[in-house]
């Protein structure tokens, strides 16, 4: 049976897992190019695959229709918006995610963005490198309120970090949160509007679905504190970027720090990139050595289990 592995990190951090699959008789084709596959290259290699460990590649109905041997797909991460889940279910193709593999890494990245925002790190570093010596006045995170939208593995990891530095954590989830879970994590449950109104920082941790696309738009910005900062390390499409630009320009919120964008990489002429109060990192929140290794292990185990080869 053939296994296709498209994420670039697997070639570096998953050598033991590749060897394990090959020792069980699987033929493994792993992306060693250092670059994402083109859509045409991905399709050509996927056609003869029994299993795919997939990164950002689009695996829609049109692709899967040409993959007649395909039995299982595992996302190298948690977001499955690049996979046609309905068609996969119709075909009987198992689709898995590496839930929890990168939750700590993403949470730490969000915390880093909060610190960068509160301490004016980016503009200060930029100014010093340009020959200046500016001394902006920052703020402490201790005592501030952090609203977490989506209380899954990443949300819980972020809550632990935030409470550890003395922040008050407010949580909202589309699914009912057990009050005992909230208490154990030292969090306060609130409605979405209540969370937006009370939080100094608002962090998004929800999947990109039809129900969450543009879930943060003008109405939500108008509920937020004018001194608030919006954090997004989930998916770009969750925030209406036109509304975000207007909110930052008119001072509806103070700042925004993102690790994701609706179209990656963004166009250089994107209006948001011209704003000093918008920071964007290049979708690297989950890219740590530790998370990559865990993701390689979990995705391999999922593939082996659903090919009937788990030892």
From TrEMBL:
InterPro entries: D-iso_2-hydroxyacid_DH_PdxB, D-isomer_2_OHA_DH_cat_dom, D-isomer_DH_CS, D-isomer_DH_CS1, D-isomer_DH_NAD-bd, NAD(P)-bd_dom_sf
Keyword terms, alphabetized: NAD, Oxidoreductase
CDD domains associated with the record: PGDH_like_2
A molecular function (GO) term: NAD binding
Statement: the UniProt record of this protein carries the keyword Transmembrane: no
Superkingdom per UniProt: Bacteria
Domain spans labelled D-isomer specific 2-hydroxyacid dehydrogenase catalytic: 27-299
All copies of domain D-isomer specific 2-hydroxyacid dehydrogenase NAD-binding, residue ranges: 112-285
Alphabetized Pfam families for the sequence: 2-Hacid_dh, 2-Hacid_dh_C
PANTHER family: D-ISOMER SPECIFIC 2-HYDROXYACID DEHYDROGENASE CATALYTIC DOMAIN-CONTAINING PROTEIN-RELATED, D-ISOMER SPECIFIC 2-HYDROXYACID DEHYDROGENASE FAMILY PROTEIN (AFU_ORTHOLOGUE AFUA_1G13630)
Similarity section: Belongs to the D-isomer specific 2-hydroxyacid dehydrogenase family.
Name of the featured protein: D-isomer specific 2-hydroxyacid dehydrogenase NAD-binding protein
Originating organism: Coriobacterium glomerans (strain ATCC 49209 / DSM 20642 / JCM 10262 / PW2)
Upper classification of the organism: Bacteria, Bacillati, Actinomycetota, Coriobacteriia, Coriobacteriales
């Amino acid at each position: 049976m053939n296994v296709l592995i498209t994420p670039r990190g697997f070639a570096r951090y998953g050598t033991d897992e590749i060897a394990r699959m090959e020792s069980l008789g699987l033929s493994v084709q792993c992306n060693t190019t250092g670059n994402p596959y083109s859509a045409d290259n991905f399709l050509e290699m996927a056609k003869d695959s029994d299993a795919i460990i997939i990164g950002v590649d689009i695996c829609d109905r049109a692709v899967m229709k040409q993959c007649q041997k395909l039995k299982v797909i595992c996302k190298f991460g948690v977001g499955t918006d690049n996979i046609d889940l309905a068609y996969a279910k119709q075909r009987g193709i198992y689709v898995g995610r590496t839930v929890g593999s990168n939750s700590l890494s993403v949470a730490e990245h969000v915390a880093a963005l909060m610190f960068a925002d509160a301490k004016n790190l980016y503009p200060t570093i930029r100014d010093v490198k340009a020959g200046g010596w500016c001394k902006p006045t920052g703020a402490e995170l201790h005592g501030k309120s952090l609203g977490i939208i989506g209380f899954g593995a990443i949300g819980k990891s972020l809550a632990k970090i935030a409470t550890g530095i003395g922040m008050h954590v407010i949580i909202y989830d589309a699914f009912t949160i057990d009050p005992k879970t909230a208490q154990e994590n030292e969090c306060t449950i609130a409605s979405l509007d209540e969370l937006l109104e009370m939080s100094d920082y608002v962090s998004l941790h929800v999947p990109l679905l039809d129900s969450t696309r543009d879930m943060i738009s003008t109405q939500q910005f108008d509920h937020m504190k004018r001194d608030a900062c919006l954090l997004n390390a989930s998916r770009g499409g969750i925030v209406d970027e036109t509304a975000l630009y207007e909110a930052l320009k008119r001072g509806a919120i103070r700042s925004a720090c993102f690790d994701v964008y609706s179209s990656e990489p963004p166009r250089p002429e994107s209006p948001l990139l011209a704003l000093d109060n918008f920071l964007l990192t290049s979708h690297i929140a989950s890219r740590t050595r530790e998370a990559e290794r865990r993701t390689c292990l979990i995705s391999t185990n999922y593939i082996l289990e659903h090919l009937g080869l788990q030892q």
